[in-house]
Amino acid sequence: MLTASDPGLTYITVISSVSLFYMEFQKPGWFEGDDTKQSRRVLPPPEKFANDHDLFKKKLQRSLKLSNRGVQIASNREDLNKQIESIQNDTEPRLAAQQILGDTSNIHDNYTVDRQHGVKKTGRKIQTFADAFGQFVSAYSGIIEVIATASGPYGEVAYQTLSIFFTVVVNKTRNDEKIAELLDDMRKTFPKLEPWKDIYPTDNMKALVATAYQQVITFCRAASEYFTRFFKRLMMAIMPQSSMNINEVAAQIYKTLAEINSEGMFGLHGRTQSIQRKLTDVLAQNRSLLDEFAAYRKEVEERVLQEDKQRLEALRKALRVTLPELETNIDDTKSFLMKVFPNTSRYVAHVPATGYLQMNCNLLHETTEYQEWVSSSHSCLLFLSGTTAAEGRKFRNWTHSWLSPIAIYITQDLARKNLPVAFFCCHPSMESKIFSVNQIISSVVLQILAKEPQILRDKAVQFLSIAQTELYRNSENSKQHVRAVLKLLEDVLAAVKALGPIFIVLDRLDQYEGKFSFLMDELVRLVGKSTCHVKLVVIADTSLRRGEWHPEYLSDENIDMDRIFVRQGWNQRKLTNLELAKGERSLTWDE
To answer: Is 102:96 a contact under the CB 8 Å cutoff?
Structure first.
């Protein structure tokens, strides 16, 4: 007898994975609609098969001396499961199969008592067999369902045979576990293909499945006859070397199942290789598509950037501004300021500027107004103004403000934090010039849009229409002109509000050619607009009294003074003797 532990069966293991790779895109067919050719080639004729089944039942009836009562046995999986469950639940089975076979317990009562030695042991044996049989049915039912698709009584015959077999074994209360062991061994070697109908039905696989189906039917019949023949079992107990048909059929079943596993494994490898080739092709196609998409995306992005540049250039021409320009170049402006206010760590007698207070980062950060401006989450304005001593510069005839380094500190700090900042210095070089509001604000507008050019995709026409109006182009610096220019800045700030605060640093705004106080009043009103989110810094030198402003004179009741941080009169002064005696001091510029 073959068992699951025999070396010849060790390779029958992983067939449960075949179904995943053996499936095709269309639903495979087994024996449906093939009753004239294929089914006849691998399955016995249905008429002969039904006759053999009837002879089997009559033979059992004669062996057990059953009375001629109506035949009602389990003919499908559901009824058979109920029959098995009734035994597993230790209840008396009520299926019709029991009525056919009759009450056979009275025929061999004495034999049963001698064999089992007690009711408890008998019940345990029956439970063991019922469990093994139930698992066997679960494994074999897959083959039955496939075979049942062919025209004929194949499904009914299989389930009736299993039902009769189960009833015979239970009613005979057999204590010999040979059949249970055979069933368990076969159950372990049945291919666990779920669902069976998804397996690719090759001709060879069809033939093997049909063979396994018939062999299990033969096995059940032989086992049933074995259980009904007392003297045959007695002879086998006396002469173990006698051949037993059950073992022979079981060996044939093992061989067939091994061939099914081999066929499935062959199909598995073929299918795996096919899938691998398809996967390689798909990956290559995917890489090609990704390359094409990347090239197309790059082309689109370049085209969009080019269109953004064209729109920005059209607006620049309308505003009559040149970018980049010296006034917006933070590095060049810093370079000039470093010449005017060089680093001095201590007092030098022949250099008068070393005896004056010079701006440095620590001095700025200690300023209350600056701290409040930085911490504010709303639009706000920081205004710093004061005078510069003539000897506080390296050269007396230069006109730069000692507060201008603040504009460099703030702008560079914002740039390091990758925050959007627009910078404009009205005194970036040695020469002191006068600027119009158009020049200053138009430059700021272009700096903002250069960082966010996508805004022009929707707003280019609107901004161009404002820039091309006569009121905007007017250079008389009238109040209407100033408001028209600031209206463009307001619209631009409104368009980028969703991106977060925009920072604007205007150094030496006292160089504005128009009325300084009016421009400052309008900037305050801009900060108060709910459509904008802007943080503005204005630095002015009051040495020539051009940068003076009085925010307390603002008459508009809608202006929120809490958003204005002002430090006026921040004048450069001489250092005291005590300060000079301290030695080294904070530097104006980072080394």
So the answer is: no
**Does 384 share its domain with 479?**
yes
End residue of a domain, out of 281, 309, 338: 281
- Is the domain of 11 the same as that of 159? yes
Mean pLDDT of 124-137: 81
What single-letter DSSP state applies at residue 168?
H
Which residues lie closer than 8 Å to 423 by C-beta, 6 or more apart?
328, 330, 333, 407, 411, 447, 505, 507
For residue 421, the enclosing domain spans 320-581
Q: What is the mean pLDDT of residues 259-265?
A: 74
Task: Tell me the average pLDDT across 47-72.
Answer: 66
Note the pTM of the prediction, 2 decimals.
0.56
Checking if the pLDDT of 114 tops 60, the result is no
- DSSP states of 199-262: S---HHHHHHHHHHHHHHHHHHHHHHHHHH-HHHHHHHHH-TTS--HHHHHHHHHHHHHHHHHH
Cα 200 from Cα 87, distance rounded (Å): 37
Nearest to 362 by CA among 578, 585, 571: 585
Quick one: tokens of 534?
């802007």
Q: How far is CA 186 from CA 206, 244, 412, 464, 553, in A?
A: 19, 17, 82, 87, 103
Strand partners, 383: 538, 566
CA 299 to chain centre: 28
Give residue-wise pLDDT tens across range 135-155: 888 888 888 887 877 777 888
